């Protein structure tokens, strides 16, 4: 079904992707899964109003109340809708919870040209995770089980992903991004590649990325290629003595030139330049 914020599609019976519409306020993707007698929601979009539509859709489609809500990582475009799920068990890593505490929508506006503060002002309630996992949690439902994994520092230092072993579907959060520049500055790019390597043993037929359309297992490789390509590009020019502005003035590597969200390219170049010098993360605007 089509909504103002996202397009909801049933990937497999009982497994749904909510793909954010470009230019609208949901910004991040989400999903929901019928576990049998209860429903799990993966990520809560960028705005409570959008999350309310997501919850209604999830409960109508599955016929079950939402029992579990997962925050893939702390970025506000994946967590600002948490208050709609405050009566559920909200699951994240400890680091995600710590990053969220006290940072309510403070860095979410403007994102992608949208002033979310206008839409969210006066209605936002800090709603933090209540169940913290370290590296793995299995939720056994009546009809299917869902596995949650944390493999370390990658897009952020707290990314969770969800895997359905029978359906072979992976909800990746921002660990995997389809056809767009992937923000690196809140995590560790070289470790991100390693984390994606660790997904290799998983049998995967479909991936719901953090942004962009549902893809196949090849989107993991594409995300790795993106990270490697851009790291190499910045390092090669930095070694030649180029400044960040000069690197940005140089032609973008061909493989990257067709990707969406060009503004992230500039931020990544500036981040990678600084990161190479200091090892300091450049997290500013969450995406
Ligand atoms: Zn993110």
UniProtKB/TrEMBL annotation:
InterPro entries: Metallo-B-lactamas, NDM-1-like, RibonucZ/Hydroxyglut_hydro. GO terms for molecular function: hydrolase activity. Keywords: Hydrolase. Pfam families: Lactamase_B. CDD domains: metallo-hydrolase-like_MBL-fold. The keyword Hydrolase applies. Residues 27-211 form the Metallo-beta-lactamase domain. SMART domains: Lactamase_B (SM00849). PANTHER family: ACYL-COENZYME A THIOESTERASE MBLAC2 (PTHR42951:SF4), METALLO-BETA-LACTAMASE DOMAIN-CONTAINING (PTHR42951). This is MBL fold metallo-hydrolase. It comes from Metabacillus mangrovi.
């Amino acid at each position: 079904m089509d909504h103002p914020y996202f397009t909801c599609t049933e990937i497999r019976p009982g497994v749904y992707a909510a793909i954010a519409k470009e230019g609208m306020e949901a910004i991040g993707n989400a999903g929901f899964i019928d576990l049998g007698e209860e429903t799990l929601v993966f990520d809560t979009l960028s705005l409570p109003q959008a999350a309310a539509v997501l919850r209604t859709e999830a409960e109508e489609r599955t016929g079950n109340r939402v029992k579990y809500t997962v925050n893939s990582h702390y970025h506000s475009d994946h967590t600002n809708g948490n208050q709609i799920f405050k009566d559920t068990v909200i699951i994240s890593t400890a680091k995600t919870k710590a990053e969220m505490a006290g940072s309510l929508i403070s860095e979410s506006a403007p994102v992608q040209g949208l002033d979310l503060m206008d839409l969210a002002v006066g209605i936002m309630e800090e709603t933090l995770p209540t169940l913290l996992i370290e590296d793995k949690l299995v939720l056994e439902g009546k009809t299917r089980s869902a596995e949650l994994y944390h493999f370390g520092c990658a897009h952020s230092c707290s990314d969770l992903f969800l895997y359905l072993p029978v359906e072979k579907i992976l909800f990746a959060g921002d660990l995997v991004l389809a056809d767009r520049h992937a923000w690196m500055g809140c995590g560790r790019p070289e470790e991100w590649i390693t984390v994606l390597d660790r997904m290799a043993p998983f049998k995967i037929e479909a991936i719901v990325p953090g942004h962009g359309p549902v893809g196949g297992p090849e989107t993991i490789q594409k995300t790795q290629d993106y990270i490697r390509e851009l790291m190499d590009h910045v390092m090669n020019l930095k070694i030649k003595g180029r400044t960040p502005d000069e690197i940005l003035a140089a032609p973008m590597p061909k493989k990257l030139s067709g990707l969406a969200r060009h503004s992230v390219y500039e931020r990544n170049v500036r981040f990678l330049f600084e990161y190479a010098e200091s090892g300091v993360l450049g997290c500013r605007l969450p995406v």
